[in-house]
Automatic annotation (TrEMBL):
Residues 1-149 form the HTH marR-type domain. Keywords: Plasmid. SMART domains: HTH_MARR. It comes from Streptomyces nigrescens. This is HTH marR-type domain-containing protein.
Amino acid sequence: MAKKKLTQAEMPVADHAFYGLVWAGTVLTERVDRALTKAHDLPVSWFEVMLWLASSPDPVPASVLGNSTMLSRSQVSRVVDALQGRGLVTRTPSPRDARSIEVALTPEGHQLFEEADATRRACLAPVFTDLLDDTDLAALSTVWHKLKANKDAQ
């Protein structure tokens, strides 16, 4: 007897919502990663670190990058090493804490980030931002804030 596939209508809404979240994150991240790598030789993990750096007017302590990104501290360290090797970031001792290092985009890093961000936006437009209206985007933003606010809940 052939096994029947569970349809969306039969799946509990919470399960379908979670599956959709995982699906969207995986598919969209892979799509952006391919586009950034092809156009700029820039993996999405590097772009994520650059996004946080570009969002800050001041150099960012390496520990803050580790807490802000979806990467582990060791991954952040490897990404920063790679970005520094390409001349896209600088590392400087923190003026506030001698044990801490701060990271900032170089002018070349800012330029590449702007180009890569345009690539990311163009890549996502037909499958994300062009499909969703402002209400959809606001709802998603609310959901992400709720989930992140409770990320350490047991």
